[in-house]
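G., before I forget:
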Amino acid sequence: MTVIEMSGVTKEYGPVHALDGVDLRVERGEIVALLGPNGAGKTTTFELLLALARPTRGRVEVLGGPPSAARGRVGAMLQSAGLPEQVTVRELVRLIGRSYPRAVPVDEVLERVHLDGRAGRSVTTLSGGERQRLLLALALIGEPELLLLDEPTAAMDVVSRRSFWAQARTAVGHGATVLFATHDMTEAETVADRILVIARGRLLADGTPTELVGDDDLEEVFLALTEELSTAHPEGAVR
Amino acid sequence: MSTHAIEPGRRPTTDATRAPAPSGRTPAPASPATGPAAAPAAEPVPEVRARPTGGRAGLLGLQVATEVRSSLRSPEFAVGAVIIPVILYAMFGLTNASSLLPGGTRIGLAMLVSLSCYGVVTLAIVVFGEDVAKDRGRGWLRTLRATPFPTGVYLAGKLGAALVHAALIAVVMAVLAGTAGGVDLRPGQWAVYGALMLAGVVVFSPLGFAIAYLAKPRTAAVVANVIFLPLAFASGFFAPLSELPDVMGDIARYLPTFHFGQIAYGALLPADDVVAFTGAATQPLGAHLGWVLGSAAVLAAAALLAARREAVTRRG
């Protein structure tokens, strides 16, 4: 079953073309990495999939319908996502869980992200990695069919990162699909079934890690792809 | 393999097998060979509207409870929102409490009304505005919008928590006025006083909401105070308009806070004493209501437009 489908999607913010004719399809059970330099259009892609923005042109479907209709079936971690103050971890997870049509028990989801020992603590006292795990708990609480993760492990140490992906894989084991953005090539190569490379709003490559890399190094491939676009379309020319 | 040859927007055409799935993972289906056009048609999925477990009312109740608990953990909130009007009443209301206005009303009652109005309007404008602006600034509203949590429930929850705090202000002020201030009202009048204070939070929360969405998050607290303090003075909450420069009286008639005060005084004081205490001529109740409700509607519309504009144009 197709979980994400974008056809000819363009998103313009005034003169800036954040996405430029993107075609993308993600099937159920896949873990897909979205790689791209800063300003490539990764966050815009997530915003369109979460109905936080509307495409200027093209069609976006999530779980077979418009993104806004899928909100109760999608869990998301956004880049620069924030948390409220003076609320405890348990209170926050319980509150957000109540907004979903169905929810994992609070203690269970906290245990899954290893925050059960912090349940009574104020979110303001959490470390960067713990905040990310709390955001993952908020993304997982509604038993999502699709997880959209925008640079989810940016503030995490190695142990937290491994634990994070173990939880994401568990969710996939329960039938979820994952699309995540990252700047970490190793993470993309080891975690993802498929890697998408995007730059200047254009999808440059789409393949399994083996297909993309072969005997080469993913970082070299990534640089080659994005530099190729820069050469073909000097700054400002991609519209 | 030379991946440089990958055509932009296309998958590489090698026949390499998929990387083995990590253990515990469901094997993923094959990726589309040539993009969406070649993939099987999407299986239609019935639209499932996100209905909160326990319903919207249950979610709202939980939101209010969470907000109230959260505010109790912030001592500065209790000081700013609840204790200041009480302290002001103790300092200025109780000292002249037994003095009488020409119609026989105790100054203690008039000051109870004016400082309670000040307290609940502060709560609605400054606290509500600053609180929502902070959530907006730290990205919590953005996080919420990626969940099925309805923005309306979020705002209603903030309002509900503000009503709880307004009730607290009204009760503490009433107890102080009734005991130390010698204010003696019939139960029905106390009920009217309480209802007016709660209504004040509701009608002025759109102004706080507007500040939260129209001002930059970091400046919202300053903007709220810059707006509110002149409003409070020009509305006669601290001193009768007759004791302030004439221009204040001219401005006051256009201020919703002035009209709200006039409604509250009018409900609990004889008309002559309202004039004597506030230094402003009374107007028909409908005129005062029109100003208060009209401004609330205009500000709510402005705030909704600002919130919508941010939702549509924000670039992540």
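Chain B has one domain: 55-314. Chain B touches chain A through 72 residues (CB under 8 Å).

More on Monday.
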